[in-house]
Amino acid sequence: MTFLVYGAYGYTGELVAREAVARDLDPVLGGRRPAPLDDLASELDCDRRAFDVADATANLGDVDCVLNCAGPFVETAAPMVDACLATGTDYLDVTGEIEVFEALAARDDEASAADVTLLPGVGFDVVPTDCLAAHLAERLPEATHLRLGFDALGSVSPGTAATAVDSLGEGGAVRRNGRIESVPSAWKSRRIDFGTGARTAVTIPWGDVSTAYYTTGIGNIGVYVGMPPGVVTALRASRPLEPLLSLPLVKRPLQSLVRLTASGPDERERERTDCRVWGEARVVSEQGIERRAVSRLRTPNTYALTVDSALAAVDRTLDGQAPAGFTTPAGAFGADFVFDVEGCDDFADDPITP
Ligand SMILES: NC(=O)c1ccc[n+]([C@@H]2O[C@H](COP(=O)([O-])OP(=O)(O)OC[C@H]3O[C@@H](n4cnc5c(N)ncnc54)[C@H](OP(=O)(O)O)[C@@H]3O)[C@@H](O)[C@H]2O)c1
Known about the structure:
Order of helices and strands: EHEHEEHEHHEHEHEEEEHEHHHHEEHEHE
CATH architecture of the largest domain: 2-Layer Sandwich
Largest sheet: 7 strands, parallel
Shape: globular
Bound molecules: NADP nicotinamide-adenine-dinucleotide phosphate
Strand content: 15-25%
């Protein structure tokens, strides 16, 4: 079986490529610029293919599975998926962009007809939250509302920072009655105990607003991130500037700046930092009684997890375990898929109340 890592010389792609080689998975390395691709492929003794995403069809004929690490995925996912559907290649990526998840979900029929798997979001976003969502839906199958949240320590990579700048000015997003709705940035805040005591958390437009619906069928979803109260206040105060932040004239220099300043966590930081994930499923009965299930999960550093979960997803897909069509990590492999990742604690469940 042949699998290709696209965007192999980026921060995430390189971590994935190195680990894939360490696991004897024999990856083919892909990317658009020949020079950095050649350097990495020569060092790792891998086959390489330099091509633009627009020319992917000509390069995937003999490839069984692509792992796309070239983000922002709003630019690369569609042309790569076109090529995968044309060549019968399974498509995986590490996106966290709601727009990308929704665009791929809309191609479910097309992918099923081509017998191709479309499995976006096999990194930190959304594997642990998606698996926790599936676990909560198993605990409280009648749930109508789902809240997910995470509290992550550690710095971010250049591409993550650039992707975040890309979404500046777009506000927030939640799912209500099955539909994704725009809401202001930092729309709601609440106190959440991620497992180390209560702290302030605020809503963000995280990928699970899209994916948890496909995984669980629950139609009301909000995702929170732990944040210092002062940052929440600053985010809300900056709302009037959002139209300005969405202008290309402002975004482009900001993107260049964050690419220069964000280098991504080094090995020591990846080993030393971890992440707490929290989720709550709720339902109110006709008698007005609310039932709640709360569960938590502790995971390794977000980038360490991304490498491990992405390769686990590739491994299972090559093994034929992923269904054809659009799917999510827990939709494809079940709630326990997150335990393929080394260093994840078991789900910690509060008793269902009442
Ligand atoms: N799901 C998760 O938890 C998770 C974890 C890590 C990263 N990510 C996401 O993964 C993406 C990459 O992050 P990173 O830090 O690895 O970024 P990075 O270091 O900037 O690397 C990005 C890679 O993508 C390539 N690329 C970008 N746009 C491209 C295009 N239009 N066509 C072809 N190649 C293109 C770049 O090639 P050039 O250098 O030639 O431009 C580079 O190889 C980001 O969107 C980030 O948010 C998600």
